[in-house]
Amino acid sequence: MSESAAARGPVIILVEPQLGENIGMAARAMANFGLAEMRIVNPRDGWPNEKAEAASAGALHVLSAARVFGSVEEAIADLNVVFATTARERGQQKRVFGADGAMAETVAHAAAGAGVGVLFGRERTGLDNDAVALADAIITFPVNPAHASLNLAQAVLLVGYEWFKASGGSLPFSVGERPVPATREAVLSFFDYLEGELDAAGFFMPPEKRSIMVRNLRNIFHRLTMTDQDVRTLRGAVVALVQGRRGGRNLPRKGRAGEEEK
User: Fold this and answer.
1) What is the reported pTM?
2) Among the listed residues 13, 28, 23, the one whose alpha carbon sits nearest the alpha carbon of residue 49
3) Mind telling me which Pfam families this protein's record contains (predicted)?
4) Would you tell me which CATH number, out of the four given (1.20.1250.20, 3.40.1280.10, 3.10.450.50, 3.30.460.20), belongs to the domain 3-166?
């Protein structure tokens, strides 16, 4: 396996998959996380498979490049490091990794030019012990032990996700630059106005609790880390409520049927 191939991530090796749909969904999961090389060992329904193409959601480049092998030994012959996925302890005294730890090791191996592969077993029974014996280490997943079996494509997706993170993948977008908080002057002016109107409405009852209630109210707004726009919006909302209560001109006019006119 070439260094350029290793840089694309681990080879995904499906051992005797039974359903074309699962192969297609596995290809889709690979494409989601930048994995390019699929190898298939003795697919039950032959290859190529129209159902795999239909289920791939456009990951045809993965399927078109997929290679078919007659045995696991042939499929891993050119690889340097092989992981086997399994939900059961096999008593083979191999190192056991979660997908995150295995993919962290894969990044290091790939950087050194080594070819890494991950074996995935049949949908119903997983890998047999002989296939697991060919691997250097085991990948397993923290799942509910009462329902530990994963769909083939789900298992591929979990490995691909951890590979993408370990190799430097990042979120496609973020909130962006944090806005500048409002000045203390703007915040305190808002507090003064709000507390004055709440006094007029009789909110601070009983009077001896006013100072505690004011502190609690101010801390609610402080936790929001308000911007100047936030302060203006909140102040405008309170003004509208006060004017509405006092019969101000900003009230919506009523139509003949009692509906608000726009």
Assistant:
1) 0.72
2) 23
3) SpoU_methylase
4) 3.40.1280.10
